[in-house]
Amino acid sequence: MRLLNKLLSAAPIVWLMFACSPAYAHGVASGDQSFLANAEGVHIFPYMYLGAKHMVTGYDHLLYLAGVIFFLRAFKDVLKFVSLFAIGHSITLLFGVLSGIDVNAYLIDAIIGLSVCYKALENLESINFLDPRIAVFGFGLVHGLGLSTKLQDISLSQDGLVENMISFNIGVELGQFIALTLLILLFGWLRGLPDFPRIARSTNIFLFGAGLFLFGMQSIGFYFS
Question: If we measure between CA atoms, which residue out of 221, 106, 98, 91 comes closest to residue 152?
Fold first, then answer.
């Protein structure tokens, strides 16, 4: 039974390691970049698919949202916090691409890494600087700006840009819904385990480590870019 509990407690850690695999790194895959760079006119469903794919495979978003919902039990709380993140994310994603405002990709991704660290420390009750609702909305703005920056690295056609970006954002929200559904089921199962307090602490320590790793890698990239 003790071995079983150890294996079960390692489940979220394995998930985090899997999530941090380079194959699931934040950004736009080369094949998708090629499509986006050559697409002319309105492509609603392809852009929705790419938005959903980005969210499902974007480990930085998933790590942060995992921290946000980790201790939430009531559906209305999940809906409230995820909506705040989605609103912030949508604002800067759409505004950034349509206005052409650009930020250094390494710098914004380093801040995204810190957002994961902050949420993990908040869950560990080590810090509590901000109202959690304001923090989630603010970091949603940062995450959206990060994705906007990645898209602006691609020469997107101005023909149908507004429709395509709205479609992409809808896809992001659909992907977020799918990913969060799986995470909610996972965390609900973990809460039923007898060793949940230790599992929760271990998971959030690894969340902090993953965010710190992301921050370090992007900081090195910023320094040498």
Answer: 98
